[in-house]
Amino acid sequence: MRKEVLISGFGGQGVVLSSGVLAQALMYRGYEVAATYSYGAAARLGVTRGEVIISDDWIDYPKVKRPDFWIVMNQASLNVLSKKYDIEQAVVLADSSMISFLDPIIGRAKEIFRIPASDLAEELGAKVSANMLMLGALLKVSGLSPLEDLERSIRELVKPEFIDVDIEAAKKGYELIEKEYVINQ
Amino acid sequence: MYFLASCLVRILGRSFPLKKEKKLMIGYDAVTDAAILAGCRFFAGYPITPATEIAERMAEKLPKSGGIFLQMEDELASINSLIGASWAGFKAMTATSGPGLSLMMEGLGYAVLSETPMVIVDVQRVGPSTGMVTYPSQGDVCQVRWGSHGDYSIIAIAPASVQDSFDYTIMAFNYAELYRTPVILLMDEVIAHLREPLIVREDVEIVKRKRPSMPPEEFMPFMPKPGEYVQREMPALGEGYKVIVESTMHDELGYRESESHEVGSRTIARLWNKIEKNVEKIAKEEFYFMEDAEIAVVSYGCPFRSAINAAKTARKEGINVGVVKMITIWPFHDSMIEKLAEKVKAIVVPEMNMSKIVREVARAAKGKAKVLGVPKLAGQMHTPEDILVAIRSVAR
Tell me, what DSSP letter sits at residue A129? Predict the structure, then answer.
């Protein structure tokens, strides 16, 4: 088993952090994990990419070849990366607060979930928790790991002042995806 | 600097109680944890993407371990302060990337000639010049070997995982002491920013700084024992020994000898030989699927991982491919490559540069196997497919 998760957005949305949090949560489950990230020269904006590989065996190539899951947090990274990757087998979780134009992936991705993550996170008190809301949703959709693992990982890796709101956001993502925000292509 | 360093308490090779545990760690954290475990108590550096995180972590961790962290005004000062700290008895490290490494080249030569142990971490990014600051590369592999002027040899080690980053940092510190030389840990951005499970080993061997065994009036800091190339014993400032650290050619006592062809010849030859004549002891590599291999992929750093993936696929296609992971790049292990070339019909060398180490491989293979470089430029890690294409082309 090898599963590939791609996370993309702009610098400042917590893409790098969320790739680490996800990898750690999945390691608790006993998976082999490898997470890398790449970013541009700018501290804010630009396209930032996190890549998390999950496997039963030692992971040789630590980068995404064909994503199984893609959390996409902004329009620019959707436009750029949809051209770079074969997304035929990808389940896409798109932050619809930030993305209005899904045409580049409609009809190509296996499945698309539109989740207004940034708006929902803002309602919870911190727009930057949108990344954790998406991770909650990912765990629900993928069945890779229960929510407790994510909570534990957040407690270990996130700055103290964001732990509570991040956990709340993760729970919201986990619960909501079954309810009103599921819109398949 | 010398004064400051010599005034502070030295804590060298302190052993840590270690539990064997698996934890998710990022490459640069593995380097800093291993450095402190290896006895590093002095770090001086100047921030540069993508090596800044190492300085940040050292700033946080070193003082808690009784060490000193200094942010210097530039890379020239950084490497020179390492020379001072090392002669004050500290195990010392710096971390930089391409442009900073270029600035350190003069200081590197100083450390070579003054036989000063130190570890320089180079997190390689795309050059030339400022280049592509956040993207990985292996463009500095030849610079670390040949970049400073004059004749010398050096040790360079390339990690290909987070576990390697931990283990090889300790190796780098040990080699620095064993051969009294600067050692370069040649990382690339992919490995520095990779998160992976790390097993903190209990059985780490740490080489401590060797103190002079003779009284000050008899001790010669640059005089190896008969039949050896390295004087392992090294005094520290303030212990009563003469500490003459001279960047001009010097004799075995450290006294300047800038006009003696005889002293110069013998010193230069010894600096070269202490690395090159010990190549069989220094050089390390790992072999994967080599038993029945007809084609070998010789790799180092992150392309090794793509090579393993490519070899697995090639084997499914019926091509018997093995992979060699070069742990040390310098000194170059000619005899290993020659033996390999006698066994396989072709050697593929993927590198994230225009093809540099492939020239060394071709030289050492002495025409006994076909050698093919697979360059990958501008901050891209080889995909397994990139290497597979090369494997298929030589398999025909």
Answer: G
Taking an 8 Å cut-off on Cβ atoms, the answer to whether B24 and A39 are in contact is: no
**Residue B19 · residue B200 · CB < 8 Å:** yes
**Cβ separation B197–A36 shorter than 8 A:** no
**Average pLDDT of the segment spanning B100-108:** 97
Superfamily of domain A2-176: Pyruvate-ferredoxin oxidoreductase, PFOR, domain III (3.40.920.10)
Name the burial class of residue B102, with classes exposed (0-12), middle (13-18) and buried (19+) by CB atoms within 10 angstroms of its CB: middle
Q: Find the range with the poorest average confidence among B99-103, B131-135, B151-155, B292-296.
A: B131-135
Q: For residue B370, what are its two tokens?
A: 């076909």
Q: Distance between CA B63 and CA B82 in Å, rounded?
A: 16
Size of interface A-B (CB pairs under 8 A): 57
Cβ burial B28-47 (10 Å sphere, 16+ → b, else e): bbbbbbbbbbbbbbbbbbbe
| Whether A20 and B305 lie within 8 Å, measured CB to CB | no
Read off φ and ψ for residue B323, nearest 5 degrees.
-130, 135
CA B270 to chain centre: 20
pTM for the complete prediction? 0.92
Q: Which amino acid is at B298?
A: V
Domain ranges of chain A: 2-176
Is B2's pLDDT higher than 60?
Answer: no
Q: Most A CBs within 10 Å: which of B195, B288, B297, as the mutation test of the A interface?
A: B195
Q: Are strands B68-71 and B40-45 parallel, antiparallel or unpaired?
A: parallel
Residues whose CB is less than 8 angstroms from the CB of residue B120 and which lie 6 or more positions away in sequence, other chains included: B79, B93, B94, B95, B96, B101, B104, B108, B182, B183, B184, B185
Distance, in Å, from the CA atom of B1 to the CA atom of B68, rounded to the nearest integer, reads 12
Handedness of CA B48, B52, B54, B57 (dihedral sign): positive
Q: B383 and A41: CB-CB below 8 Å?
A: no
pLDDT per residue over B222-260, tens digit each? 999 999 999 999 999 999 998 899 899 999 999 999 999
Task: Map out the domains of chain B with their CATH numbers.
Answer: 2-199 (3.40.50.970), 284-395 (3.40.50.920)
Q: Do B194 and A62 touch (CB under 8 A)?
A: yes
CA-wise closest residue to B234 among B392, B396, B91: B91
Chain B touched by A62 (CB under 8 Å): yes
